[in-house]
Design goal:
The protein is mainly α and about 900 residues long. About 65% of the residues lie in helices and about 5% in strands. Helix 29 runs antiparallel to helix 30 and helix 41 packs parallel to helix 43.
C-alpha cells in the first residue's frame, strides 16, 4: 500500500491560504522587529479537515526561519476533562528542561502557585485559588517570553482544550500587551458552550483583527491538487467530481486521492463514478472497515490508543490491549501503513510522551466511537489501573474512572475522592467537582455518603455557590456528619448562602443549628457566625436584641479560644457601628489578639472563619483612629494572599481596604491607586457583589476628597454606583457617599433626598457613628440656606454622637460642620477647635480641610499656607486650589 506523498498533503492544506500565511508572516515580523514588541494574537477558525493544523505547521516554519522559539500544544476530544492538559503541553517542556533552581528563579513567587498546575512542583497542603493559578500561568509566559524572545505559542484545536487552559488563554489574551509573544490559535466553530465558549469568545475579541474563517478549496484548487497527486493527465470531469465528493475539504481530498492511488483508479471521467464509494471509506464507518481489514489485534490496538488519547506508547497500548510486545509492534506498523496512526511529526514541535499519534483528530474520534459501549467502559477501567500502576497518580486516572459504570465499588469512590483532592490542590475545582459527582453515582457507603457530599460542597463553594447549597443541605440531612465536621458544613453552607445573596436564610439556618447544640465551643462558634452574618446585613431593620445578646456573650469572653476571639471582634465591630466609645471598641479588639497578632487559625488564609471577621477587626481599628494597626492588618492580608496565590476576591478586598487605610491617613493618591488596582479584580469576581460595592464606593469617596468631581461621577456612572444598594454593609455608607457626590455635581435636591434615605436606614439599624455613616454633616451643610433650623439641629446631633464616640477625627469633623453653619467670631472659634482636634488625628486630609477653613474664617495667611502644604501632601487638589484662591484674595497676616 502506497502512502500519500508528504508534499501532496502539505500542498493540499496550504492551497488558497496565501492571505492567512501572509498574516502570519506579518505577525512574526512584527514580533521579531523589537524586543519591546507587544506581540500578537491570531485566531483561525474552520471545520474539521480545512487545514488548521497545516497552517500552524507553516507558522512554525516561518517563525523558526526568523529565529523564533516555537512551542505548541493541541486539545483532544477525549482529554477535555484533564485540567491544564493543553497549557502543560505548551509550557512544561521548556520548564522541565531547566534545573529546578533555574525554574524557581524564572517563576519567582509564582513557582509554588503555578508549578503544581504545570506538573513541575508538588502541590501545597491547601486548596489552591483558581484565579491565582491562572495569574501565575500568565506570569510564567511573561517571564519566559523575556528569556526566549522571540517566542511563538501555537494552540491547535482549542475547542477541545480543557476549561482550565481556556481560562488561562483568555487571561493571556487580555494581558498580551504586557509581553512580547505571538499566540496563534485554531479552533472549530461551535463545539463548546458555557464557560469554555465564553473564554474562547474573550480570546476572539482580543485577536488582532477579526477571526479568520478558513474556507474550503475551490474547484480550480481541487483540480490543481488532483493533478499534483495523480498526474497532469487527470481530466477535468474527474477533477470536478473529486471536488464535488469532498466539498473542497483538504483533508478529505488528500485521503480520497490516496485511495485513488492505492486502487490504481484511472483519473478519467469514465471512472469518476467510483469516487463516492472510495470516499466513504475515508471517514466514520469507512475507517472502521479499514480497521476490520487489518484484523482483530490491530483493531484492539487502535481502540486502546483511542482510549489513552495521549502518551500513546507501544508498551502502554500493549498492556491495555493485552497484546504481547512483538504483536503490538506489528499492529503499530499496520496502523501506520493504513494512515490511522503515525509517529509524532517533529514539525508540530509537540513533545509527546508516546511513540504514536492519530493521523487526524477525525480518525481518533471515529475509532473511539467505534468501540462497543460495554467494552469501551471496561477498557477505561483497565486504563485507570494501568495509569495508576505507572505512578501517574489518582488525578491522571480520574478521567478514565469517570467513564466506568457505577458498581458499588468502594475503592473507586476513594480513588475519585483522592483525585478530587489532587485537583483542588492545583487549582482545578471544576475537575474536582466532576470526580466527586461521579463518586456519588457509585454510590459511596452510607457512612461516608454525607462526607462525600460535604467535600463536593466545599469544592464548588467558590465557583457555583448555588450548587453548593443543595449539596450541603442534602449532606446535613443525612447521617454521617457529626461533631466538628457538621459544624464546618453548616458554616460552609451559610457562606454559600451569603455568596448567593441569601443572607437572611444564612442567619436563620445557623441560628437553628446552634439551638440544637448544648452550650460549649461548637455552639459558641455557630453563635458567633450567626451574629457575624447579622452584623454585615444592611437591611432596614436590625435583628431584635442582637446587640444585647452579643454584649452578653462577649462579657464573659477572655479570648482563650478562637470562638471567644471571634465574639470579641464581633462585639467591637457592633459597638463601632453604633457609635459607642472608641476606647472600648479598641479594648475589645485588642483582647481578640494574641501578643498583638492574629491568633493561629484566625489568619487571613485560614478558612475556619472567613475574611469577613478579620475585615471587621481591621475596620474597627481604621475608624477608631488606630490607622497604623489597620494598615498593618491590611498589608498582612495582601502579602498572605499574594504568597498563597489567592488573586480573586480575597486579594481584591485586601487591596480595597489598603486603599481605605490610605484614605483614612489622607494619602489620597495612594488610596486612589490601590482602589483602581482593586477595581478590575472586583469586576472579575462579579458586579453587584459586596466586594464590588466596597471598591467603587471608596474610589468615589477618595476622588471627591481629591476634588476630582468629574472623575468621581464618571466612575459612579460607569460602574453603577447608584441604588439599589447591596444587602451587606459597606464602609463608608454608600447612600451617604452617593448623596455627597450628588451635592458635589450640583444636584442639590437629589443629594438631599439621598442623604435623608441614608438617615432613615441608619436610624432603623441603630448605626449612629458619624464617621462611618456621614450623612448628617453633609445634610446639615446642604440645608444651611433653605432650612437653617434643621441644619443646626443636625449639627448639634453630629457633635453629640461624635463626643460619645470620642475620637479626635469624629469630634474635629463635627466641629467643622458646626463652624460651616456659623459666621463671625463664633465660626472662627469653632474652626480653631476643629483644627486642634484634627491636628491630633491621623487623618491628614481632614486636618488640611480644617486648617484651610480656619485660615479663611480668621483671614490667616499662615494657616492657609500650612493648610495648602498639607493639601498638596495629601493629593487633595480641590483643597489646594481653595487655599491658593484664598491666599490670592489677600488673607491677613494671621
Amino acid at each position: 500500500m502506497t502512502e500519500v506523498r508528504p508534499t501532496a498533503a502539505a500542498s493540499a492544506s496550504l492551497w488558497e491560504r496565501d492571505e492567512e500565511v501572509a498574516a502570519v508572516a506579518r505577525a512574526v515580523d512584527s514580533l521579531c522587529a523589537d524586543r519591546s514588541s507587544s506581540g500578537g494574537l491570531l485566531v483561525f477558525r474552520g471545520e474539521a479537515g480545512l487545514g488548521k493544523t497545516a497552517l500552524l505547521a507553516e507558522t512554525r516554519r516561518i517563525a523558526e526561519a526568523r529565529g523564533c522559539q516555537v512551542w505548541s500544544a493541541r486539545g483532544g476530544e477525549t482529554l477535555r476533562s484533564v485540567p491544564f492538559n493543553v497549557v502543560r503541553q505548551l509550557l512544561q517542556p521548556a520548564l522541565m528542561s531547566m534545573l529546578q533552581e533555574e525554574a524557581r528563579e524564572y517563576l519567582g513567587d509564582w513557582y509554588d502557585i503555578a508549578g503544581p498546575a504545570l506538573g513541575i512542583a508538588d502541590p501545597g497542603d491547601r486548596q489552591a485559588d483558581p484565579q491565582g493559578v491562572c495569574d501565575g500561568l500568565v506570569a510564567a509566559v511573561r517571564r519566559l517570553s523575556r528569556r526566549d524572545w522571540p517566542l511563538v505559542l501555537l494552540i491547535d484545536d482549542a475547542h477541545w482544550a480543557d476549561q482550565e487552559t481556556l481560562h488561562w488563554l483568555a487571561a493571556l489574551a487580555e494581558r498580551r500587551d504586557e509581553m512580547s509573544v505571538l499566540v496563534v490559535v485554531t479552533r472549530r466553530p461551535g463545539e463548546v458552550s458555557g464557560t469554555s465558549a465564553r473564554h474562547l469568545d474573550t480570546v476572539a475579541a482580543a485577536a488582532d483583527g477579526p477571526v479568520t474563517t478558513l474556507s474550503a478549496l475551490t474547484p480550480d484548487a481541487t483540480a490543481g491538487l488532483t493533478r499534483a497527486a495523480l498526474g497532469e493527465h487527470a481530466d477535468a470531469a474527474f477533477c470536478r467530481e473529486v471536488w464535488a465528493v469532498t466539498a473542497g475539504n483538504p483533508y478529505d481530498t488528500v485521503e480520497l486521492l490516496a485511495k485513488v492511488r492505492d486502487s490504481e483508479l484511472e483519473p478519467v471521467e469514465a471512472r469518476a463514478g467510483e469516487l463516492r464509494e472510495l470516499n466513504r471509506s475515508a471517514r466514520g464507518g469507512g475507517i472502521v472497515a479499514r480497521l476490520e481489514e487489518l484484523g482483530i489485534d490491530a483493531t484492539r490496538f487502535a481502540w486502546a490508543a483511542a482510549i489513552l488519547g495521549t502518551g500513546i506508547s507501544v508498551d502502554l497500548v500493549a498492556k491495555l490491549a493485552t497484546l504481547k510486545p512483538d504483536e503490538a509492534r506489528r499492529c503499530a506498523g499496520l496502523l501506520r501503513t493504513a494512515r490511522i496512526l503515525t509517529a509524532p511529526d517533529p514539525a508540530t514541535g509537540r513533545t509527546a510522551e508516546g511513540d504514536l499519534e492519530f493521523v487526524h483528530p477525525l480518525i481518533a474520534t471515529a475509532v473511539y466511537n467505534s468501540i462497543p459501549d460495554a467494552l469501551r467502559t471496561a477498557m477505561h477501567g483497565i486504563a485507570a489501573r494501568i495509569v495508576t500502576d505507572e505512578g501517574h497518580g489518582a488525578a491522571a486516572a480520574a478521567r478514565h474512572l469517570i467513564e466506568v459504570h457505577p458498581d458499588d465499588d468502594e475503592e473507586l469512590v476513594e480513588q475519585l475522592r483522592e483525585a478530587a483532592r489532587e485537583h483542588l490542590a492545583v487549582g482545578a475545582p471544576d475537575a474536582a467537582r466532576r470526580c466527586l459527582e461521579r463518586a456519588l453515582e457509585e454510590p459511596p457507603r452510607p457512612d461516608i455518603h454525607a462526607q462525600v457530599l460535604y467535600e463536593l460542597g466545599c469544592a464548588t463553594l467558590l465557583t457555583v455557590p448555588a450548587r453548593t447549597i443543595g449539596h450541603l443541605r442534602t449532606a446535613l440531612g443525612m447521617p454521617g456528619l457529626v461533631g466538628d465536621d457538621r459544624v464546618d458544613a453548616v458554616i460552609r453552607l451559610s457562606q454559600a448562602l451569603v455568596h448567593n445573596d441569601q443572607l437572611q436564610e444564612a442567619v436563620r439556618m445557623v441560628g437553628s443549628e446552634a439551638a440544637r447544640l448544648e452550650p460549649g465551643p461548637a455552639r459558641m462558634r455557630l453563635e458567633a457566625v450567626r451574629i457575624m452574618w447579622e452584623g454585615i446585613h444592611a437591611g432596614e431593620v436590625s435583628s431584635p436584641g442582637r446587640s444585647e445578646r452579643l454584649a452578653e456573650l462577649a462579657r464573659t469572653c477572655t479570648g482563650r479560644n478562637n470562638s471567644e476571639r471571634a465574639l470579641l471582634i464581633l462585639r467591637g465591630f457592633d459597638a463601632l457601628m453604633h457609635g459607642e466609645n472608641a476606647e472600648e471598641v479598641v479594648e475589645l479588639c485588642d483582647r481578640a489578639l494574641v501578643n498583638g497578632r492574629l491568633a493561629p487559625g484566625l489568619g487571613w488564609t485560614d478558612t475556619e472563619w472567613g475574611i469577613e471577621l478579620l475585615l471587621m477587626l481591621a475596620n474597627a481599628y481604621a475608624f477608631t483612629d488606630r490607622v497604623d494597626r489597620a494598615e498593618s492588618l491590611f498589608n498582612e492580608a495582601v502579602r498572605n494572599y499574594e504568597i498563597a496565590g489567592w488573586t480573586g476576591g480575597h486579594l481584591a478586598l485586601a487591596h480595597a481596604y489598603v486603599g481605605v487605610a490610605h484614605r483614612r491617613r489622607g494619602r489620597l493618591e495612594d488610596a486612589e491607586q490601590s482602589l483602581r488596582e482593586a477595581l478590575p479584580l472586583a469586576e472579575r469576581v462579579g458586579r453587584g457583589l459586596p466586594l464590588y460595592w466596597t471598591v467603587t464606593c471608596n474610589l468615589v469617596d477618595t476622588l471627591l476628597a481629591r476634588g476630582h468631581v468629574d472623575e468621581a461621577w464618571d466612575i459612579a456612572e460607569r460602574y453603577g454606583f447608584a441604588p439599589p444598594y447591596p444587602s451587606t454593609i459597606v464602609l463608608p455608607d454608600p447612600p451617604a457617599v452617593r448623596g455627597r457626590l450628588l451635592l458635589a455635581v450640583g444636584r442639590l435636591k437629589d443629594g438631599i433626598n439621598e442623604l435623608e434615605a441614608a438617615e432613615k436606614a441608619a436610624a432603623a439599624r441603630g448605626h449612629h457613628n458619624p464617621v462611618l455613616v456621614p450623612w448628617a454633616a453633609d445634610l446639615a451643610r446642604a440645608l444651611a440656606t433653605e432650612d437653617p433650623a434643621r441644619a443646626a439641629r443636625l449639627a448639634v446631633d453630629v457633635r453629640r454622637q461624635a463626643e460619645r464616640f470620642g475620637t479626635d477625627t469624629a469630634i474635629g469633623e463635627a466641629l467643622r460642620c458646626a463652624a460651616a453653619l456659623e459666621t463671625g467670631q463664633r465660626a472662627v472659634r469653632l474652626a480653631a477647635q476643629a483644627v486642634t482636634f484634627l491636628e491630633s488625628s491621623p487623618c491628614q486630609y481632614e486636618h488640611a480641610a480644617a486648617r484651610i477653613e480656619y485660615g479663611i474664617a480668621a483671614r490667616s495667611a499662615t494657616d492657609l499656607d500650612r493648610g495648602l502644604d498639607l493639601a498638596v501632601s495629601c493629593g487633595a487638589d480641590g483643597l489646594a486650589a481653595r487655599a491658593r484662591a484664598a491666599l490670592k484674595a489677600g488673607a491677613g497676616p494671621g
